[in-house]
Amino acid sequence: MTDLNTIGEFGLIERIRQATPAPKHADTVRGIGDDAAVFNWGDDYGLLATDMLVEGIHFDLMYVPLKHLGYKAVAVNVSDIAAMNGLPLQLTVSIGLSSRFPVEAVDELYEGIRMACEAYNVDLVGGDTTASRSGLIISISVLGKVPKDLITYRNTAQPNDVVCVTGDLGAAYLGLQLLEREKQVYLADPNMQPNLSEERSYLIQRQLRPDARTDIVHELRDLGIRPTAMIDISDGLASELLHICRQSGTGAVIFDENIPVDDQTHLAADEFKISPITAALNGGEDYELLFTVRPQEFDKLSTNARITAIGYLTANPDQVVLATKAGQQTPIRAQGWESLAKS
Ligand code: ADP
Ligand code: MG
């Protein structure tokens, strides 16, 4: 038998994809391989994304409030719809619960889910409820739509496109490091008060209650810009950039000094003795958007403070590199993958 870790999550998905028959319905436009599946809905494309959060793998209820968890479970799904340049419409929520959860815990989880549905203008329309032996499991599926002429895949980027990211990166990872450290302090001495001061609040918020960038989808539409490719940053900039490059057959040059990192992220990275660039490349859970635009389109975006150009694409698929100011180039590799970690 083959250990799952020898092929990894992406290897496993690729194996499933290869064994999946071609779509039987003409209206199934795109199946496995992008942020969401795509369907023909007349003037629009329908979009369907699904994501699961598992206690002990994706969250630790010692420091994750259930209300935040509910919000995050919705946001990470909506983020995949935004990554197709679409907007969400309806969602279903399926939960697995072990007997240690009282009714009030489910109320709290759903309060967060309802807050996110309000924030993203989505209707909660169904789901499933089951018992679980391994704590809490939340699986959400979201339907969305995008006008046909605006859909944005991962595999349609071109050489010379400008590579852009929204917001800033690495904060959610450092938020997680802070929460984990406080947990260890608490476990050692439950009388200790957590040291999560105001100047850390942004990092904690980015970890516990991320937002999907539907605002950017609206903004791109207002500016009349359709990215050539887009993906959301759930696993870290490195991994997502490699998805776009592999699927589009391009290379990329990314300038490390251009990668947007918040001041709080810099400070915490210093404290944990990790490079903020490593946190941005491999940390994950930022739920920002990574997209590419034709160079002549970038002018329309260049004054936007929420969008940063970090590099450009090349015609050489073997060259996906990080460039320093001094001109040194190092290959960008995807790291950090724990989804199938042994339990
Ligand atoms: P994302 O990080 O954007 O959620 P994933 O890496 O989870 O994307 O998934 C990539 C693609 O693989 C998506 O099209 C997704 O629907 C598909 N996929 C993931 N897991 C499975 C599975 N177990 N069976 C079939 N398709 C899957
Ligand atoms: Mg995604």
Automatic annotation (TrEMBL):
Binding site for Mg(2+) 5: D235
Alphabetical list of SUPFAM superfamilies matching this protein: PurM C-terminal domain-like (SSF56042), PurM N-terminal domain-like (SSF55326)
Domain PurM-like C-terminal: residue ranges: 159-317
Binding site for Mg(2+) 4: D35, D80
Alphabetic keyword roster: ATP-binding, Kinase, Magnesium, Metal-binding, Nucleotide-binding, Thiamine biosynthesis, Transferase
Residues binding Mg(2+) 3: D35, D80, D232
Manganese listed as a keyword: no
Residues annotated for substrate binding in this entry: H58, E285, W337
Pathway involvement of the protein, from the record: Cofactor biosynthesis; thiamine diphosphate biosynthesis; thiamine diphosphate from thiamine phosphate: step 1/1
Broad EC category: transferase
Protein residues bound to ATP: Y110, G127, D128, R154, S234
Superkingdom in the source lineage: Bacteria
Residue numbers binding Mg(2+) 1: T50, D51, D128
Family membership: Belongs to the thiamine-monophosphate kinase family.
Additional detail: Reaction mechanism of ThiL seems to utilize a direct, inline transfer of the gamma-phosphate of ATP to TMP rather than a phosphorylated enzyme intermediate.
Protein name: Thiamine-monophosphate kinase
Organism: Spirosoma aureum
